[in-house]
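User: Could you go from structure to sequence for me? I need the amino acid at each position, not a summary. Structure tokens:
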């Protein structure tokens, strides 16, 4: 070994250390068995191996901002191509032009698979393109990338996912759509005993297209979105129950819903064997809406008068449960109650109704309901009288809450309802119904996921 300048020495010793992946520091020579050089092909073979195919070549293309990684795939010389329909080996026919598929970016560099698909002559299915295990139909994205994008799209918004991984919003949307369709096709609907039926508002306006009908499973062991469909009509709910299948409907023990008349009719005819409950969450929200209506009417009536100050910035304080209002807000609320304004009286009625849910006996609860409705009807506050009439006409369904003996809690319906609102707001920019439906199933459906050899997130 020449011992001239240190630069020369370094140059000469370079080949002996290159196998280690990096040059040794100082004069220290590495000892022991040399490790196998780790290159991208090794990683791919470990995490993304496809039987019948080999990674031939991996190279950089372009430079600067257009830098990309190309992964060239070749068929295994000793293995026949498979028919896409039956996945059985079939004799080759010819080869098509090269196609490319977007793969998960490696170190942030856009990465593509390149491959020339073969056509096979299957004795059963005729001539067709072979089965390509990383591809789904004509999509220009690998399955691994679709799973990758779909998983991130649950943590980030679709727009953020697209930006982070250098792809388009469309591409994220299609990946999530594929992921959801796969999940819906592979989910099982066993052990569905309790369902909640709800109407959700989305978008602007109050036209019938701005509502959705949703069906949740609200069993203790599994809470998820089962079905979502446009509008809130009888036909919409019938369509939803049909989508679940007759077996699921037959197995139902509890159905929770709002007092929305079209739903009540469908449940009475199609799921009469299940105990139908008008649940606490919906009744509470009706009461809250009534209080808010009274406040708004009174605000506009008192505009300009000193009493109006009492109602200023009271909306959220009035909608909260009394025991949750503290400090300054509480003093303000008490001030309002002393004034004998209709809003205060409506709030008191709403607050006393909360006691209803603490009963255990059906007959005591019925008595309470009767007395409460009597008081509300005499209150001369029209929104509260309307609520009382509504509660009276659905008394039996409301009392079913107590007949279910605590098997149905308030939590799941409310929780799922809130989550749906988060998703519909986030996806409001989509404007298309299908995109929002996909987002709802993706976030709340608890759908099974396609197996992938490696989880990138
Ligand atoms: Zn075939």
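Assistant: Here is the amino acid at each position, in order:
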């Amino acid at each position: 070994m020449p011992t001239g300048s240190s630069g020369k020495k370094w140059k000469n010793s370079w080949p002996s250390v290159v196998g280690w992946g990096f040059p040794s520091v100082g004069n220290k020579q590495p000892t022991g068995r040399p490790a196998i050089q780790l290159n991208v092909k090794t990683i791919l073979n470990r995490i993304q191996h496809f039987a019948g195919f080999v990674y031939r070549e991996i190279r950089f293309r372009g430079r600067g901002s257009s830098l990309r990684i190309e992964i060239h795939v070749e068929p295994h010389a000793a293995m026949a191509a498979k028919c896409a329909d039956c996945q059985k080996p079939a004799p080759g026919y010819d080869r098509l032009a090269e196609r490319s598929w977007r793969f998960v970016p490696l170190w942030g560099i856009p990465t593509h698979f390149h491959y020339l698909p073969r056509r096979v002559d299957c004795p059963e299915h005729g001539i067709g393109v072979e089965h390509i295990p990383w591809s789904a139909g004509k999509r220009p994205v690998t399955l691994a990338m679709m799973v990758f994008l779909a998983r991130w799209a649950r943590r980030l918004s679709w727009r953020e996912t697209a930006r982070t991984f250098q792809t388009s919003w469309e591409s994220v949307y299609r990946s999530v759509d594929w992921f959801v369709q796969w999940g819906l096709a592979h989910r099982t609907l066993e052990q569905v005993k309790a369902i909640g039926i709800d109407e959700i508002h989305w978008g602007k306006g109050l036209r019938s297209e701005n509502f959705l009908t949703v069906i949740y499973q609200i069993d203790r062991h599994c809470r998820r979105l089962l079905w979502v469909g446009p509008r809130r009509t009888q036909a919409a709910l019938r369509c939803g129950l049909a989508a679940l299948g007759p077996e699921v409907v037959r197995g139902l023990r509890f159905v929770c819903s709002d007092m929305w008349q079209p739903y009540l009719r469908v449940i009475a005819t199609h799921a009469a064997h299940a105990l139908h409950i008008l649940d606490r969450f919906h009744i509470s929200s009706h009461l809250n809406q009534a209080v808010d209506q009274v406040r708004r009417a009174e605000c506009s009536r008192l505009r300009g008068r000193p009493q109006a100050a009492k109602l200023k910035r009271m909306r959220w304080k009035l909608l909260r449960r009394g025991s949750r209002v503290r400090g300054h807000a509480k003093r303000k609320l008490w001030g309002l109650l002393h004034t004998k304004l209709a809003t205060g009286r409506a709030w008191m009625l709403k607050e006393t109704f909360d006691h209803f849910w603490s009963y255990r006996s059906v007959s005591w609860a019925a008595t309470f309901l009767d007395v409460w409705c009597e008081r509300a009807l005499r209150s001369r506050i029209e929104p509260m009288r309307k609520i009382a009439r509504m509660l009276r006409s659905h008394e039996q369904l409301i009392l079913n809450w107590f007949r279910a003996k605590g098997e149905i809690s308030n939590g799941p319906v409310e929780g799922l309802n809130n989550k749906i609102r988060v998703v519909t707001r986030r996806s409001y920019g989509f404007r298309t119904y299908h995109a929002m439906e996909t987002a709802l199933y993706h976030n709340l459906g608890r759908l099974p996921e396609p197996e992938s050899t490696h989880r990138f997130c």
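One structural detail worth keeping in mind: The two ends are 49 Å apart (CA to CA).
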